[in-house]
Design goal:
By secondary structure, this protein is α/β, with parallel strands linked by helices. It has one domain: Rossmann fold (3-Layer(aba) Sandwich), CATH 3.40.50. The chain has 11 helices and 8 strands. Helix 4 links the parallel strand 1 and strand 2. The protein is globular. The chain binds S-adenosylmethionine. S-adenosylmethionine binds next to helix 1, helix 2, helix 4 and strand 2.
């Protein structure tokens, strides 16, 4: 079993390698896929003028900018991300009340009891030691502070992620098989586990709202195939595969996705938790 430090190192390497590059290259498509989930999280966060906010795993900073607008000139937003390339892009927008830190949010020395809100859009599922990470966020919050994040539910509830991987897997070298508690995009699918993490970290008043909607995956099957294996679970398998294996895997993905192709693009069901909590367990 890998140690939390080894898991964190792996995640840092992934987000500074194929993960970050893939996110940057595909951001328009990603926004079409997950934008509505993110908007729901921003509505739940309800950031107010003058508030101080942390955006965990802020990526290219789209939500950081939305939060900066909501808190206004008297407020401040700190975006934290471990990917150098994504932080560089986020900084380039030069929003006066938003700053960005390149680093591990799990261990970053935030000002203690200095923030009203810790927010994240799909950026909290990648910690080697999630209890320690959320304890760090809990300590950064004022006693009246709140936590709001959105994360994926289980792979079975998210065919947009599962269908291409299941179709391609038989034709590729063995795919990584993360343990149920290993960091990754579906690591927070199990509500009971997330509740345990948040409670152990000191959070209270937990709320889990299920959000379900179709996820846009691309304009067409051909569009999806053009970037298949660029990042995500198929990236490593594609990197180790022969051209013949890749061709067969892509044909299988095409067969699985073609029934879902419409004039509005290819969409498959997606399922998230919108999680809110208070900094104080009392
Ligand atoms: C799925 S992406 C989401 C990015 C952004 N929140 C969005 O919705 O566009 C996950 C992000 O978390 C970042 N990340 C992963 N582990 C992290 C860590 N330990 N500390 C800070 N950021 C991390 C990645 O670099 C990546 O930008």
């Amino acid at each position: 079993m890998k140690t939390p430090a080894e898991l964190a190192t792996e995640q840092a390497a992934y987000w500074n390698g194929p993960g970050g590059k893939g996110w940057l290259a595909s951001i328009e498509r990603i926004e079409q896929g997950i934008g509505d989930f993110g908007k729901a999280a921003l509505v739940a966060a309800n950031a107010q003028p003058g508030e101080k906010v942390i955006d965990v795993g802020c990526g290219l900073g789209g939500t950081t900018r939305a939060l900066a607008e909501a808190v206004g000139p008297q407020g401040r937003v700190l975006g934290v991300d471990i990917s150098e390339e994504l932080v560089a892009s986020a900084r380039s927008h030069r929003v006066p009340n938003a700053t960005f830190v390149l680093g591990n949010a799990a261990t970053h020395p935030f000002e203690a009891a200095g923030y009203d809100l810790v927010f994240s859009r799909f950026g909290v599922m990648f910690f080697g030691d999630p209890v320690a990470a959320f304890r760090n966020f809990q300590q950064a919050l004022k006693p009246s502070g709140r936590l709001v994040f959105i994360c994926w539910r289980t792979p079975n509830e998210n065919p947009w992620g599962l269908v291409p991987v299941r179709a391609a897997a038989p034709f590729l070298p063995p795919l990584p098989r993360p343990g149920p508690e290993d960091p990754g995009q579906f690591a927070f699918g199990d509500r009971v586990r997330v509740e345990r993490i948040l409670k152990e970290a000191g959070f209270g008043a937990l709320s889990f709202k299920p959000l379900d909607q179709l996820v846009f995956m691309g304009k067409s099957v051909a569009d999806i195939l053009a970037s298949a294996g660029r990042f995500g679970p198929l990236a490593r398998a594609f990197a180790d595969a022969t051209p013949e294996q890749i061709e067969k895997a892509k044909a299988a993905i095409a067969e699985a996705l073609t029934p879902h192709e419409t004039a509005e693009g290819v969409r498959l069901p997606g399922a998230c938790w919108l999680v809110t909590a208070r900094a104080s367990a009392g």
